[in-house]
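User: Hello! My lab partner asked me to get a predicted holo structure for this protein. The small molecule is 2-acetamido-2-deoxy-beta-D-glucopyranose, SMILES included with the sequence. Please write out the structure tokens.
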Amino acid sequence: MYLSIVITSLCFCSVALAFSDIHGSVQTREEQANSFRPISPKVFVISMFTDEAEAWYGIPEFNILANNITVPGISPLFPQVHCTSNEDVCQVTTGEAEINAASTINSIAYSSLFDLRKTYFLIAGVAGVNPKVSTIGAVTFARYAVQVALQYEIDAREKPQAGTLGSSSPTDYPSELYGTEVFEVNEQLRQIAISFAQTATLNDTADAKSYRALYASTKSFAPGAQPPTVIACDTATSDVYSTGGLLGDAFDNTTSLFTNGSGIYCTTQQEDNATLESLLRAATTGLVEFSRIIIMRTASDFDRPYANQTILDNLLDESQGFEPSIENIYLAGIKVIEGILHGWANRFEAGIEADNYVGDIFGTLGGEPDFGPGSIFVDGNAKVRKRGLRYKKGLRRRQTLSSDSL
Ligand SMILES: *[C@@H]1O[C@H](CO)[C@@H](O)[C@H](O)[C@H]1NC(C)=O
Ligand SMILES: *[C@@H]1O[C@H](CO)[C@@H](O)[C@H](O)[C@H]1NC(C)=O
Ligand SMILES: *[C@@H]1O[C@H](CO)[C@@H](O)[C@H](O)[C@H]1NC(C)=O
Ligand SMILES: *[C@@H]1O[C@H](CO)[C@@H](O)[C@H](O)[C@H]1NC(C)=O
Ligand SMILES: *[C@@H]1O[C@H](CO)[C@@H](O)[C@H](O)[C@H]1NC(C)=O
Ligand SMILES: *[C@@H]1O[C@H](CO)[C@@H](O)[C@H](O)[C@H]1NC(C)=O
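Assistant: Hello! Below are the structure tokens for the protein in complex with 2-acetamido-2-deoxy-beta-D-glucopyranose.
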């Protein structure tokens, strides 16, 4: 009860704040329709760098460069949001890695230039891919986004002796949470997006075909040698671009651990959890709806070498699946966008009700996460201190690995 009161009043404040600088007084959105009308796109495409953005430029379906809007706070490399002339579809390039993604999406979410309460967000970027699950050129849609870098890191040259980690094992659920470890998005919406994307004919190239064939000799990499498909599987965020079987398996284990066995580690990228955390915070004040997010990642390269390939060759070989992955952002993504636009009035405007938990690991938006230790909110109050769940019953901090002081 307390929580809903807080959220309602915060929501009102944020709308008021967002517009008071323009009009000097609080007005409802309806009242100011004549003087100022924020852009309210039906779909907002989130790209991370130039090639991903250019997949949407010069296409026959719409001209996303018809309307350029300078938004304070977004990347100086990509200072404008682009929209179609009817403002149905907008696109932004965040810049790469988590900090750029978070600050750009934050700026957009709180900008008075936009009204995003009904907007669907399509995260549309390339990613590394786990050959145990899928292959280069594939189009993936995630339910879980896991921040796998939220672990303690030790340089391999200073690796502790086997056995000395004691109870602080990587297989234990973390005793301290930052809140961005796992996000879960609308499963119903994901399935709809997949069904739209499956109507696309995916691109593939001779280079990608011969590269993925090299994975066929390793039994567990069989999916990596298959032709690309549209597939449901989860994504890992790490600011560090990584490669190798050991790190891949470690992230696989972490994804499984953080999601209590539900998440399938499939793609790896550098932004999604940051984007999701910004959207989550905006959702707490009603500025966006967290159940309107689609995470689409197309696979550009493998996260680990094939048998007998050096790890450096895998890291540095840029040909792999980059071309088809960029093509497929558009080919699959346009089906999702058109599906939403065509079904707007009778289906999407009202929203797609989620039948799964939607939100973060803390339970910030309400409800009980189906992963992690459960919601930290009791009667609307977060039972946390500076670093997460330290005081939650049964989750005692590990003295051995922690160096901060309260
Ligand atoms: C919008 O910006 C792009 C470059 O980012 C440019 O090509 C396009 O012409 C601009 N559109 C308008 C209407 O000025
Ligand atoms: C990022 O979000 C995804 C999707 O919700 C989640 O599976 C993943 O655990 C998150 N990762 C991090 C590092 O927050
Ligand atoms: C991942 O988990 C499996 C099963 O517990 C374990 O055998 C393997 O060593 C782990 N891999 C890494 C890299 O931690
Ligand atoms: C890897 O190299 C070894 C030694 O040259 C060879 O015996 C093995 O067949 C190779 N494996 C594959 C899958 O190519
Ligand atoms: C795939 O895209 C490339 C450009 O990246 C193009 O040259 C090629 O013809 C396309 N192939 C198919 C099968 O559409
Ligand atoms: C997830 O796993 C942890 C550690 O085993 C456990 O404490 C927690 O209750 C589990 N959460 C759910 C929702 O099953």
